Amino acid sequence: MIDVEPESAPIDQFEKVVRQPDDRIDLARAALLIAKGRNGSLDVERYISELDFLGTTLRRRMAEDAGVMLRVGALNQFLFQEQGFAPNRQDYYDPRNSFLNDVLDRKLGIPISLSVLYLEVGRRIGLPLRGVSFPGHFLVKCKVDQVVIVLDPFTGGASLSMQDLQKRLREVRGVEVSRAIVASMLVAAEKKEILARMLRNLKAVYVKREEVQAALCVIEWLMVLSPGAVSEIRDRGLLYQQMECFRAALSDLERYLKLQPGAEDADDIHAKVVELRQNTARLN
């Protein structure tokens, strides 16, 4: 009889993937492992193969010497018209919009998940795409000769002008912004940043839906990705308090204040610590 080693937990597999240098991180695999953390029966390799199939199908249609703009146009046509991937505007806060397997199955997503799909299929057809962690709405950029074009997978891969970007940022911040400020926000996002944004979006969805246990699980993934993320220690403590896990909440919030004594919310958190100390004293 041959002994077969049990498969490690999805979060442990995720940690192994994201501990590599950025250029070696498999973004699609990491995103699918996040989904597997919620659905343990998910077959990651099946969805990797599906992405490979999409890329291979499109690549075979194009000439080897096809230029960048031709490839971008072909990618947009293929994903958003032929394959039917689309934004889920009707149920934007459905958690499934943040899971790459569900995006592939349902052909619906939000800016960050559709961008990951776009990046991964684009990479498979030779496009030099990079993610852009733009405020309020994740985007993708691509260098064409000496010009950078900014693309929005949430709107079918539309190319955005500087005026478009200024308008979007004005809507987020409520003030006029200069071209220089917008340009400074078009820095390429590393893969760990992309994964962190996916997870933060998912956490926000679960908090909004009052699914506290699910939100706590997402925080554990965020802390694997960024062990020094002090804000996640605070948020975990606040969620523990909501669940009336007073000792765990007190430990996290005291640690937060120790690490960030000058935080803007330090007074509010200190008040919660005082309350939690009273609650834990009563438990004794």
Account of the 3D structure:
With 284 residues, this protein is of the alpha+beta class. Helices cover 60% and strands 8% of the residues. Strands 3-4-5-6 form a four-stranded antiparallel beta sheet. The chain has a two-stranded parallel ribbon with strand order 1-2. Helix 5 links the parallel strand 1 (86-87) and strand 2 (108-109). Helix 2 packs antiparallel against helix 3, helix 3 (44-61) packs across helix 6 (111-124) and helix 11 packs antiparallel against helix 12 (246-259). The longest helix is centred in the first third of the chain and has 18 residues, at 44-61. The radius of gyration is 21 Å and the shape is globular. The protein starts with 9 loop residues before the first helix and ends with a helix. 35% of the residues are buried. The model has no long low-confidence stretch (mean pLDDT 94).
Taking all Cα atoms into account, the compactness measure Rg is 21 Å
- What characterizes the major β-sheet? 4 strands, antiparallel
- The end-to-end distance, rounded to whole angstroms, is 53 Å
Anisotropy-based shape = globular
Order of helices and strands: HHHHEHEHEEEEHHHHHHH
Binned strand content: 5-15%
Number of helix segments?
A: 13
Helix content percent band:
55-70%
- Mean of all residue-level pLDDT scores: 94
**Unreliable stretches, pLDDT < 50, 5 or more residues?**
none
Going across the major beta sheet, what is the strand order? 3-4-5-6
Task: Output the structural class.
Answer: alpha+beta
| Strands, total number | 6
